[in-house]
Design a protein that fits this description.
alpha+beta, 15 strands
Length: about 325
């Protein structure tokens, strides 16, 4: 038997190598196609449909609504007291304490001067060791101290108002202020804000909208801090005052005495997203759309809004709808 020529052997080996590469490539392609098919299969169907001019619309069938625990209710009419939103600033009680100490020092000096005058007057009238000039000097000193007391009272009244200055328990008030058992707050309105009469109280809120205390309006502030500020009030807080640190800036709401009517969106129907308030409105048996809810007029049952609100709103399951909408929007973008 003749040996196989080297050239033929080389050709056979080369052919077998090519066949192996083709088989390997085919297997790799089949594996990649399977993986791509598996990735596509896990994409969940979206409930979001585009609606020109109305924003995204969620289409949720009855079975899914039941699974999400969704409930709807028609908004009802309501009213609230119309309020003016103002800026409030917690005042530093140390300033009042210093003014009060100055007043008390002047009053003590007046008592001493008056006693000295009465003593020298008695000595002079009985012909004892008291000259007319000494009596006149004592009388002048007593009168000067009267003026000093009046001046100190005027300074307290000019800064804090007459109501505070004339309080019989002013010393007790100052101590409670220093212990943060009470707080004095100045509420400043804008020049455009109008009130038919001075309100009895003001609701104090943090910048986040959280209500923390109710302040009793004592009187109008005796001075204006800035020319851009309108009417101002000095208010006293006796509840939750420990939360009020001197210098803290708050928001205040004052009752104007006027009722404001509208539609009440239940608190359970309201969501917060992207810095705004929202609610889902049912536009059809299986369709829902998101609508802005202004959060500037709180109502005991939710939020008072204006405009037409004739369709039911989602009062249970709204958060699930928001999740579905956001998920669907992401899928549509991809």
């Amino acid at each position: 038997m003749k040996p196989i020529p080297r050239l033929i052997l080389f050709i056979v080996i080369a052919v077998l190598g090519v066949v192996g590469l083709v088989v390997a490539f085919s297997e790799m392609r089949e594996e990649r196609d399977k993986e791509a098919g598996a990735d596509t299969a896990v994409v969940a169907p979206t409930h979001v449909e585009s609606s020109p001019g109305q924003g995204p619309v969620l289409k949720i069938d009855a079975e899914t609504q039941k699974r999400l625990g969704m409930e709807t209710a028609a908004p009802v009419a309501g009213s609230i007291a119309k309020e003016i939103v103002a800026t409030a600033r917690v005042l530093d009680p140390a300033t009042l304490s210093a003014s009060l100490n100055e007043l008390r020092t002047a009053q003590a000096a007046l008592v001493a001067a008056h006693a000295d005058y009465e003593r020298k007057k008695k000595l002079f009238e009985t012909g004892q060791n008291a000259s007319a000039s000494a009596l006149e000097q004592a009388d002048a000193t007593a009168k000067q101290q009267v003026l000093a007391v009046e001046s100190a009272q005027d300074r307290v009244a000019a800064t804090w108002g007459k109501v505070i200055t004339k309080r019989d328990d002013l010393d007790v008030l100052v101590r409670t202020l220093l212990r943060r058992e009470a707080a004095l707050v100045r509420v400043d309105l804008m020049p455009s804000d109008k009130l038919d009469s001075d309100p009895p109280s003001a609701r104090l809120l943090r910048q986040s909208g959280e209500e923390i205390a109710t302040a009793i309006v004592l009187e109008r502030a005796p001075s204006v801090d800035q020319p851009t500020i309108g009417r101002s009030f000095i208010c006293l807080v006796t509840t939750n005052a420990s939360e009020l640190i001197a210098g803290t800036i708050l928001s205040a709401r004052l009752d104007t005495g006027v009722k404001e009517s509208g539609v009440v969106i239940p608190r359970s129907a309201t969501l917060r997203h992207a810095g705004l308030g929202w609610t889902y409105v049912q536009t059809g048996a299986e369709t829902f759309t998101r609508r802005v809810v202004p959060l500037d007029r709180p109502h005991p049952d939710g939020w008072l809004v204006s405009g037409e609100w004739t369709q039911p709103v989602v009062i249970a399951g709204a958060q699930s709808l928001l999740s579905e909408e956001l998920k669907g929007s992401i899928q549509m973008e991809q």
